Amino acid sequence: MTKQDLTNAITNCVSRGDKAFVPYILAGDGGLETIKKNILFLQETGVTAIELGIPFSDPVADGPVIQEAGERALAEGVTLRKVLQELALFNDEVTVPLIIMTYLNPILGYGINEFARDCQNSGISGLIVPDLPYEESGLLRNSLTISKIALIPLVSLTSPPERIKKITAAAEGFVYAVTVNGITGVRNGFGEDLAAHLEQLKKVSPVPVLAGFGISTPEQVRSIGALADGVIVGSAIVTAFHMGDLDLIHSLVDASRNEVHQTIN
Q1: Annotated catalytic residue: which of 18, 62, 86, 118?
Q2: Is 51 a catalytic residue?
Q3: Cβ(173)–Cβ(152) below 8 Å
Q4: What is the pLDDT of residues 16-60, one digit of tens each?
Q5: Res. 264: pLDDT tops 80
Q6: Average pLDDT over all residues of the chain
Q7: pLDDT exceeds 80 at position 186
Q8: H or E, element range at 124
Q9: Alpha-carbon distance 152 to 9, whole Å?
Q10: Which entry of 51, 118, 172, 229 is annotated as an active-site residue?
């Protein structure tokens, strides 16, 4: 799949009255063999796309739940290269767009052109690099463009309007609207300025706007999803897989669907 398939999956979801739902999983938490099982399970639940986090020893955006999952995966010997090799083995069975979330150093160590090519061969549609500032994004953009992979930007609550315009103008796939000031992880509530922030983003963005960080309950999926084109749920999904609580995952995905759709199902 390509970056256009990613955007189409989100816009098609919104056009039928639902909200996009993108679960985050830490690739290789429990071993490399869990990647295929977890992706196919999420695909079966009806998610819009899947974000795959790559374990990294020095994360800057990940909260304790994802850091601990990363440590478990690193202890299993999971690396960026091994994840892409594993994905390539079954990408013909995957029908939803896949997004890689990793940091800049692993990509530089891999080699940018080789990384982009291997992502394309593994069926990756989008890339999120939390420690890559907009001003340095040209470092990856050319290779990703050749491989038809979206470079998905993050926009924080503190980004000033002029910077938001620049970031969104270059956005591909979707804009990742960070809902809190801080790292990922479960939150009980969100700031009063979030609604205005998401409204402003949707006005200027040429691609869909998805909200993430801290969304962990069906109620939050519904309330935050109502302000954006969709949501990204990370720590709650990682915990659910780790604890074997698959019912929670179903309830989170179901919360992204409109009431009519839920009634029909």
Answers
A1: 62
A2: yes
A3: yes
A4: 999 999 999 999 999 999 999 999 999 999 999 999 999 998 877
A5: no
A6: 92
A7: no
A8: strand 124-128
A9: 15
A10: 51
